[in-house]
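Entry:
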Amino acid sequence: MSRIGKLPVPIPPGVQAHMEGQTFVAQGPKGEHRQPLHPDMQVEIAAQEVRVRRPSDQRRHRALHGLSRTLVANSVKGVSEGFRKRLEIRGVGYRAEVQGRKLLLNVGYSSPYEYAVPAGVEIKAETPTLIAVSGVDKYQVGQVAAEIRAVRRPEPYKGKGIRYEGEYVRQKAGKTAGK
């Protein structure tokens, strides 16, 4: 039995969960999230918990069991608490600002880079050098954060660029002056 798959997913107060065909739907204070699940997985929704069951002990079903349970747990957590990633900008003159549904990044290019914020994700520039990405879908929040980081990855000599909060960038030694 899968150690992760057999665990029940608790439903916090204020969150409603139900199935629409093979789609798990969670509604809560942060919004609504729809998560399609594999047709072989069976989802049982009780009063305060959700359980995911697998039809057999085949290798494929064992693999899908833990995955399906984690997808359901992420949906419930997303609509109750939400997910958040923070990015730091390092470099002289590097900064970010939000204008409507666009993120403007000044990160050393000749003109500011405009990033269109997708629906379902909220971006805030807490300070000119700190960006917060939040939303109900864990995958989408991570993808948007990765796309923003890819605009100017941290370089290994001075450490300039966009990095995740707390990310360690290994510094290389520069050239040394010869005789």
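Residues 59-80 form the longest helix (22 residues).
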